[in-house]
Amino acid sequence: EFLQRADLEAELSAFCQKSGFDLLLMMTISFTESKEPIRELVVFSHSASCREQVSKYLEQAHNPALNLSPISCPHPHISAYQQGNTLASRKKLLPLVKDFLRECDGDGCLRDTEEESEVPPTPMNSLVDGCPLDEGLPRITAEDLQDKLHQMESADL
């Protein structure tokens, strides 16, 4: 049901732009009538390169293996998966994301330099001489993301 929402990409895009994210990972869990868990994983990014690199990394993960099977999705900026390893919770996914960021070169996999910035230009009738976003969204390094993930992980403990 979640993936079928018509305005899903617009909502995810707005959330990412507001939060300054290039990529968003979402994990769901639901239960069958017999109380067996079903996990699904969604990778969202306007950057096809970033989305594909993260998806490929997670598909090939072995520690733990997520056993991802692609799910059909009507949205072009979303890769969706059924997660065969239902024991791999977000706490198991977080180290995989950290490993990906460590192996990442910091720029190439987090932002495509060829892609156009989606930040609108400053209006001509602006009351200010400049805008902090004139140069586009601030670049977020792999180290910044690792620090933030570490803070989130510490907060969960």
TrEMBL record:
Residues 111-133 are annotated as: Disordered. Residues 1-101 form the DHHA2 domain. Gene3D superfamilies: DHHA2 domain. Belongs to the PPase class C family. Prune subfamily. This is DHHA2 domain-containing protein. It comes from Ataeniobius toweri.
